[in-house]
Design goal:
Layout lengths: L4 H21 L9 E7 L7 H8 L4 H8 E5 L5 E5 L6 E5 L2 H10 L11 E6 L8 E8 L9 E9 L6 H18 E11 L4 H12 L4 E8 L14 E8 L10 E2 L3 H7 L2 E2 L5 E5 L2 E3 L17 E3 L3 H9 L3 E3 L5 E6 L6 E2 L3 E2 L21 H11 L5 E4 L6 H8 L3 E6 L2 H13 L5 E6 L2 H10 L5 H12 L2 E2 L10 E3 L5 E5 L5 E2 L1 H13 L6 E6 L1 E2 L3 H8 L4 E5 L4 H8 L2 H9 L6 E2 L2 E4 L3 E5 L2 E12 L10 H13 L5 E7 L7 E3 L1 E4 L15 E7 L7 E8 L4 E7 L1
Parallel strand pairs: 1-35, 4-21, 4-22, 5-8, 5-20, 9-19, 20-21, 25-27, 26-28, 27-29
Antiparallel strand pairs: 1-22, 2-3, 6-7, 8-10, 9-10, 11-18, 12-13, 13-17, 14-15, 16-17, 23-24, 24-25, 29-30, 31-33, 32-33, 33-37, 34-36, 34-38, 38-39
Length: 705
C-alpha cells in the first residue's frame, strides 16, 4: 500500500536537507556554481556619458566589479562613480534559483559570498495549483482596422510529476539554502494559498524551527469568489519565519478610520487638537509604587510612568481628573502613529485592471503588499531577495525604498518583464546575470554531480528521435542518426559555444564519417554572437542548426522521466527550433565638436521557429502573420554598447515597447538609435547591439566601425 503524503513528508524533508548539504559541501570544490554577468544595465534612455567614460577608465569589466569603483546615488538622482573598497550592484539573475542561490553562497573572485548577508527574503513560489500560467502579448495588428494582435504565451507550469510530493521535494532544499543566505537579523516570507500552505509550514518548522515562526498572515486578495460547494476562497497565506530571535522588526501602522476617531478621540482642546483619556496605570502590583496627589494606584495595578514623568505631564497640562478625582492622561491623536497592523490584511487590494502598475502577469502581486513587508522586516540599505521573481514587484519596491536587491527567475518572459519594469522606473544600474555553464549545472542538478556530457548528449539524441552511433564510431557519445534516413546528428557540448568551428566540423563529418551522409543536423545549447552571420555565409542547405530547448532539463525533472518527456517531443508539444538572430544596417560614425556620434538602425530580426514556441495553434498562426508582415515588431527591447570589450555588455542606450517618449507607439520600439557625445576614440569601435524579443529570447550582433 502506498504511503500517504503525510507519511512521506519526513523523508521528503530529510532528502531535501541532504540535497542542500551536498550543495553546501560542493561550494569550495572545482565544480562550484558561478554567475556570469550578461549585462550592466544603466536604466536611462538619455545616456549618462560621464558614467560611461568613468566605467571605460577601468581596464576590464571584472575590475569594476571586483572593487575599484562603485556606482552611488547622489543628491538630485544623479549617479556617479566613486572609489570604494567593495561595490554593490543589484542583480537580476536568469536561471534555476537553486543554482542561483548556490552561486550567491559560493561567491567568487569578484563578489564575496552572501552567506548570512540577506536581511529579507520574500518568495511567491508556485502554489501546486495544477495549472499552467500564461502572459498576454499584444502585437501590432495586421487587419484593415489595425486592431492589435493578442497572443498568450506560456509563462510557467504549476504541475508536478508526483503531485504535491514532488512540489515539496522542490521547495525544501531551496528553503534550506535561503536560511543559509539570511543574516542573523533576517526574515523570510513565503506566500502560498490553501493548496499547500499547511504542508509547507510543517517543512518550514523543521528547516527554520518552530520557535522562530512569527505569523501566518492572511491577505484577502479579492472581495468575492464563488465556489460550487463551500465558502468562497478569497485569501492567501503568507508564512513569516525569522533566522533568530533578533530579527529586524519595524512596526507598521495604518491610519485610524473616521469612525474610530469619532468614537475614541471625543475631546478637543481650545486649539482643536483632539485627544482621548487613557488610564495612567498598568496591570499588576510593583514594590516601587508611589502616591500621586496622596492617592495610590487602584488595587491590583501600578503607575505606568515614574513620578518624574508624571510631574512632566502635569506641567505640560496633559493630566486630567475625573469628577471623583481619578487621574487620567491626555493622548493626542496627532501624536499617534495609527492603528497597529495585525496579521489579517484586508486593506491591500488586488491590482485593478486599469492600475498603472499592472503588467498583465498572471501572478503579479500589488506593490502595496511588498511595501508593507519590506518596511516591516528590513532597513535602508538592507539586502532584499526574491528567488521566484515573477513580475519583479519585490525588486521594484525595494528600489523605491532604498534597499539593495537580488531577484531571480527561471522564465525568460519573467526576466524580460522585470528588466523592462526596472528600466521604466529609472532604477540604479544593475547586473543582468545568468548561471555560468547553466546547462552543465542544470544537468548536475537533474542527473547528479557525477554526470557526463556524453550521457546528456545521449538524452538529447533520444528526444530528437535519433539513434546513437555505435561506441567505436562515437567516442564522445554525441553522434546519432535519424532512422530511415542518411541524416547525421551532432549534439554539441553545453560547455561550448556553437559557432563556425563546430559547423565546419559537422560538414567534415557529413562528408567523411562512416562513408558520408546526405545531411547533418547540429543541436546546440549555447551559440556565438555571430552565429546568424556564420550560417548565412556558409549557405549550406544540407546543414541544419537547431536550438536545444533551454528548459529541457527542467522539463525532464518535472515531467517524471525520459519516456514522458520523449512522448511530449513525439507529440510535438516540445520542439527543437531554428535560431533567432538580428541584423543591423551599416552603422554611421561621425566626429563632431561635441564628440563622436553613432547612428545604429535595426534591419531585420529572425525569430525562433513559431512551431517551437509553446503557443496554441491559433496563436502560432497570428504570430506567423506578424512575422511575415513586420519581423521587427517582435522586438521587445534593444540596447547598444558603443565600445564593447567582449566581456561585459554595458547598455548605455536602450528602448523598449511601451516607452512612448519618442514615438508615442506602445507596440513598437524605436528602430534607430542616435548616440551622441561619445568620447573621441582613435581606431575602430566595436559596437554591440543586443535584442530581446517578446518571448524573452536574446540575439546580438557585433560590428566594427
Amino acid at each position: 500500500m502506498s504511503k500517504t503524503l503525510l507519511e512521506q513528508l519526513p523523508e521528503i524533508v530529510r532528502a531535501g536537507k541532504r540535497q542542500a548539504e551536498r550543495i553546501l559541501e560542493g561550494l569550495e570544490g572545482k565544480t562550484r556554481v558561478g554567475l556570469q554577468t550578461r549585462e550592466l544595465v544603466t536604466p536611462a534612455k538619455d545616456s549618462n556619458w560621464q558614467m560611461f567614460q568613468a566605467l571605460r577608465t577601468v581596464q576590464k569589466a571584472k575590475d569594476t566589479l571586483r572593487g575599484n569603483f562603485s556606482l552611488v546615488n547622489q543628491a538630485g538622482g544623479q549617479t556617479e562613480l566613486t572609489a570604494t573598497s567593495r561595490p554593490w550592484f543589484n542583480r537580476l539573475i536568469y536561471g534555476d534559483n537553486l543554482l542561483a542561490m548556490a552561486a550567491l553562497l559560493a561567491g567568487d573572485d569578484e563578489t564575496p559570498s552572501l552567506r548570512g548577508k540577506i536581511d529579507l527574503i520574500y518568495i511567491d513560489p508556485p502554489f501546486d495549483s495544477k495549472a499552467d500560467y500564461r502572459t498576454k502579448i499584444t502585437l501590432p495588428g495586421g487587419d484593415v482596422e489595425q486592431k492589435p494582435t493578442v497572443i498568450e504565451q506560456f509563462a510557467y507550469s504549476d504541475t508536478w510529476a508526483d503531485g504535491t510530493a514532488s512540489y515539496l521535494a522542490m521547495i525544501v532544499p531551496r528553503l534550506c539554502l535561503m536560511r543559509e543566505l539570511l543574516s542573523d537579523k533576517g526574515s523570510i516570507y513565503i506566500h502560498l494559498d490553501w493548496h499547500v500552505s499547511h504542508y509547507a509550514k510543517t517543512a518550514l518548522d523543521d528547516v527554520f524551527g518552530k520557535e522562530v515562526f512569527r505569523n501566518e498572515i492572511i491577505w484577502r486578495r479579492t472581495s468575492a469568489h464563488s465556489e460550487v460547494q463551500g465558502f468562497g476562497r478569497v485569501h492567501d497565506a503568507i508564512l513569516l519565519y525569522t533566522k533568530t530571535e533578533n530579527a529586524i522588526w519595524n512596526q507598521q501602522y495604518v491610519p485610524y478610520s473616521a469612525d474610530y476617531i469619532e468614537k475614541q478621540y471625543i475631546y478637543s482642546d481650545t486649539d482643536g487638537r483632539r485627544w482621548r483619556s487613557v488610564d495612567p496605570t498598568g496591570a499588576g502590583k510593583t514594590a516601587s509604587d508611589y502616591l500621586w496627589k496622596g492617592k495610590p494606584p487602584i488595587q491590583g495595578r501600578h503607575w505606568a510612568n515614574n513620578y518624574e514623568r508624571m510631574l512632566e505631564l502635569e506641567q505640560q497640562g496633559r493630566l486630567t481628573y475625573t469628577g471623583k478625582g481619578s487621574v487620567r492622561i491626555k493622548q493626542y491623536l496627532d501624536e499617534m502613529p495609527g492603528q497597529q497592523i495585525m496579521d489579517v490584511w484586508d486593506d491591500v487590494d488586488k491590482i485593478h485592471h486599469m492600475a498603472h502598475e499592472r503588467l498583465d502577469y498572471g501572478t503579479q502581486k500589488p506593490e502595496a503588499l511588498l511595501e508593507r513587508i519590506i518596511k516591516s522586516s528590513s532597513n535602508n540599505n538592507s539586502i532584499v531577495a526574491d528567488f521566484f521573481g515573477g513580475s519583479g514587484t519585490t525588486a521594484a519596491v525595494a528600489e523605491k525604498l532604498s534597499r539593495r536587491w537580488i531577484i531571480s527567475d527561471l522564465g525568460k518572459p519573467a526576466c524580460m518583464i522585470m528588466r523592462k519594469r526596472l528600466i521604466d522606473q529609472n532604477a540604479q544600474p544593475f547586473l543582468y546575470q545568468a548561471i555560468g555553464d547553466y546547462q552543465v549545472e542544470a544537468a548536475r542538478s537533474t542527473l547528479g554531480r557525477k554526470f557526463r556530457v556524453g550521457a546528456l548528449s545521449q538524452i538529447v539524441l533520444g528526444l530528437y528521435g535519433a539513434l546513437p552511433l555505435d561506441a567505436d564510431d562515437n567516442p564522445n557519445r554525441n553522434l546519432g542518426k535519424l532512422p530511415s534516413s542518411r541524416t547525421l546528428v551532432l549534439v554539441d557540448s553545453p560547455q561550448k559555444l556553437t559557432g563556425l568551428a563546430t559547423l565546419k566540423k559537422a560538414q567534415e563529418l557529413r562528408t567523411s564519417h562512416l562513408g558520408g551522409w546526405e545531411k547533418v543536423a547540429v543541436l546546440g545549447w549555447n551559440f556565438t554572437s555571430d552565429i546568424g552571420h556564420v550560417i548565412t555565409e556558409l549557405n549550406d542547405a544540407k546543414l541544419e542548426v537547431l536550438v536545444i530547448p533551454p528548459d529541457l532539463l527542467d522539463r525532464l525533472k518535472k515531467s517524471g522521466g525520459f519516456e514522458k518527456l520523449k512522448a511530449d517531443f513525439a507529440a510535438q508539444r516540445i520542439r527543437f527550433s531554428s535560431l533567432q538572430y538580428v541584423t543591423v544596417k551599416p552603422i554611421q560614425r561621425k566626429t563632431l565638436p561635441s564628440g563622436e556620434a553613432l547612428t545604429v538602425e535595426l534591419d531585420n530580426y529572425v525569430l525562433l521557429s513559431p512551431d517551437a514556441l509553446n503557443l496554441e495553434a491559433k496563436d502560432k498562426e497570428r504570430l506567423q502573420a506578424v512575422v511575415n508582415r513586420d519581423p521587427l515588431a517582435l522586438v521587445e527591447y534593444w540596447s547598444v554598447d558603443p565600445d564593447y570589450d567582449g566581456e561585459l555588455f554595458r547598455s548605455v542606450w536602450q528602448d523598449y515597447r511601451g516607452n512612448t517618449e519618442d514615438d508615442h507607439d506602445p507596440l513598437h520600439v524605436v528602430r534607430k538609435a542616435i548616440l551622441s557625445g561619445l568620447p573621441v576614440k582613435n581606431g575602430k569601435r566595436r559596437v554591440c547591439v543586443r535584442v530581446v524579443d517578446v518571448f524573452g529570447f536574446e540575439a546580438e550582433v557585433i560590428k566594427e566601425v
